[in-house]
Amino acid sequence: MTAIKMLLAVSTGNSRRIVCLSRVWKRPRSKENGTILSSANGDSWTLETSGSLVQLEGVTYGNDLFVTVGREGTILTSNDGSNWTRRDSTTTNDLYSVGFANGLFLAGGNRGILLASTNGKVWTKQDLGTNGLYAGVLDIAYGGGVFVAVGVANTLVTSADGTTWLRRDSGIPQYVNFTDIVYGNRTFVVVGQFSTPSPILTSSDAVTWTFRACGTGNSLNGLAYGASRFVVVGDGGTILQSENLAIPALAVRSEGTNGFEVRMSGEVGRVYRIQSSTDLFTWDDWINFTNAQATTAFLDSANTASPRRFYRALSP
């Protein structure tokens, strides 16, 4: 009987796309478990030799290097996507995810294992500050100068440097697994399983997290961000889409006797209104407009006598 295979991960870089073809039913150790495919165009694929007999779970690209991780502490690296070298991970724990950001590779796995590397070749263990018997790391993201790792048993930890980690309170009292995390539009979003409704958390600073109602108890397994929207997929064919989460940004400077210049960056085509205040308590609508470009400048010349002025943008 032909083995059933499952594609688990994909990464792009160096004009190649790499996929780990990694799951083979009823064969715990097989060369098919370590299958890697590469493609320069996404249409024609080449079967590469990885030398691994265990299931590969995640792949990333950074610093001109592909890195893939898998069961039994497996870490493989390649400069071209074709020739792969095994690296010493310093662990036999299964590794489920790997990512690259801010000059650092991070790989996470079961029993709270988290590994860091600056070059993808030499790896060191990091202390998550969690109960390692239960805190499996399933995914890692970076944004706003912060690394965030999520996983089983409410694992939610953050780090500014990838070395010193702090546990954060998700606000969910019951046991849940956080399966995926993405950073987009200056917002972290986490999804998971084992709660009703299934967990979706958001945070702008990775410290304070807000639970979002999603209307389903199906396990949520994957998450992506694009075009100012988050899309979540899960068991039972579940597909969820957020509202547009474009957050406007304002920059203000004094033009002396001419007033104040206000520059707003936001989503093109979205309706915004900018309000002004002199005391941060009373706000008045100043201008309403449909944003036609990434950044738009306005001149508030009606209040040149005021020594100070505050602005905020809302939509609508």
The helicity comes to under 10%
What structural category do the secondary elements indicate?
A: mainly beta
How many distinct domains?
A: 2
Tell me the number of helical segments per DSSP (H or I, 4 or more residues long): 0
Q: In which order are the strands of the major sheet placed?
A: 1-2-3-4
Report the top-level CATH class of the largest domain.
Mainly Beta
Please give the CATH architecture of the largest domain: 6 Propeller
Radius of gyration: 23 Å
Roughly how many Å apart are the termini?
A: 59 Å
CATH homologous superfamily designation of the largest domain: Kelch-type beta propeller
Give the low-confidence spans.
Answer: none
Tell me about the largest β-sheet.
4 strands, antiparallel
Order of helices and strands: EEEEEEEEEEEEEEEEEEEEEEEEEEEEE
The fold-level CATH name of the largest domain is Neuraminidase
Query: Average pLDDT value?
Result: 86
Strand element count:
29
Measured by DSSP, the beta-strand proportion falls in over 45%
How would you sum up the global shape? Answer: elongated
